[in-house]
Design brief:
Elements: H1 2-5, H2 9-15, E1 22-23, E2 27-30, E3 42-45, E4 50-53, E5 58-60, H3 62-70, H4 74-83, E6 87-89, E7 95-96, E8 113-117, H5 122-130, H6 135-141, E9 143-149, E10 152-160, E11 166-169, E12 175-178, E13 184-186, E14 193-197, H7 200-210, E15 218-221, H8 228-235, E16 240-244, H9 249-261, E17 264-267, H10 278-292
Parallel strand pairs: 14-15, 14-16, 16-17
Antiparallel strand pairs: 1-2, 2-3, 3-4, 4-5, 6-7, 6-10, 8-9, 9-10, 10-11, 11-12, 13-15
Helix pairs in contact: 3-4, 7-10
């Protein structure tokens, strides 16, 4: 247990694409990843390896952080950290964990992407199929990203964001970003309406459910609700907004923020209210959708 608590919070957040807005020798100040935060309220003490959110008066070890970020139990958080939320190793196609231990503050993605190819690796294809997403759709919007860091060579599924970074997801539960982190917008020439998704799995799930390759509406994938402010200028260009965010506190707060800045907003998360997100809905309701020959969602 002590070894798990020794995992560097700074490097863990960095792997999630979250970096300090103010970085000092012994601590860093972050925008809280749990809620909208304009004041860099989250403090991470590097030597003590503890965090504290001054906005909510919450804090603790990395286990508490994972419980909060992943909305999971203590045992689930420990299990995630034991599995080390890492990458897929290329050399022998075995799972390999990235070590968060140590005090190095260097960027874990210090080396460049080595290759960007269509998704062909059997493990990634199996991962997509497990998500119930159509493989052709995944290949239309995502790529198999091969990259190297100080621990070796790895690969993940990646969606390109607006700044040229890649939002990454691998079969063993890793979610992260090859920097820089940003939103992903898809412009289909329709300024009348816009669909808002939290992550690319939700966007791909929507296309799979609707049985279409592209939407009639413009799309913004937040790649994290922490990016909600970055998306507002794009969202405000549209007259009607449809949100497909997670059914959790962060998703609801992001939806309310969008509603406060736009006149016509439809919260479509009510259509999968019994699930955490749209991909969970797709995975849990796939057989029902097939039996009923679902007509899909309202836009």
């Amino acid at each position: 247990m002590q070894n798990i608590k020794g995992i560097s919070i700074k490097q863990f957040l960095q792997m999630k694409g979250i970096n300090p807005a103010k970085d000092y020798n012994y601590y860093g100040m972050y925008y809280s990843p749990f809620r909208e935060d304009r004041n860099t309220s989250l403090k991470v003490e590097y030597q003590k390896n503890l965090w504290h959110d001054f906005g909510t008066n919450e804090g603790g070890s990395i286990i508490d952080l994972v419980m909060k970020m992943e909305n999971c139990s203590f045992h689930e958080a420990v299990s995630k950290l034991e599995n080390n939320t890492a990458y897929m190793h290329i050399g022998n196609n075995e799972d390999k964990s990235f070590s968060f231990h140590g005090n190095k503050s260097s960027n874990i993605f210090e080396n460049k992407i080595e290759n960007i190819i269509p998704i062909t690796h059997p493990k990634l294809i199996e991962y997509i199929q497990g998500r119930k997403v159509d493989l052709a759709l995944a290949n239309l919007y995502c790529r198999e990203i091969h990259y190297q860091n100080q621990s070796g060579q790895f690969f993940s599924i990646g969606l390109r964001n607006n700044k040229g970074g890649y939002e990454l997801s691998s079969p063993i539960g890793f979610k992260g970003c090859f920097p820089p982190k940003d939103i992903t917008t898809i412009q289909n020439g329709n300024n009348d309406s816009c669909l808002v998704f939290e992550g690319f799995w939700d966007f791909l799930s929507y296309l799979t459910i609707q049985k279409v390759e592209k939407t009639k509406q413009d799309v913004v994938v937040l790649n994290s609700v922490a990016n909600i402010e970055k998306s507002m200028s794009f969202i405000k260009k549209h007259g009607t907004i449809y949100t497909y965010l997670d059914n959790d506190d962060a998703g609801r707060k992001a939806t309310e923020l969008i509603k406060s800045a736009n006149s016509t907003v439809y919260n479509r998360s009510t259509q999968y209210a019994e699930c955490k997100d749209l991909n969970d809905y797709l995975c849990g309701k796939k057989l029902i959708l097939e039996k009923k020959k679902s007509r899909g969602f309202k836009v």
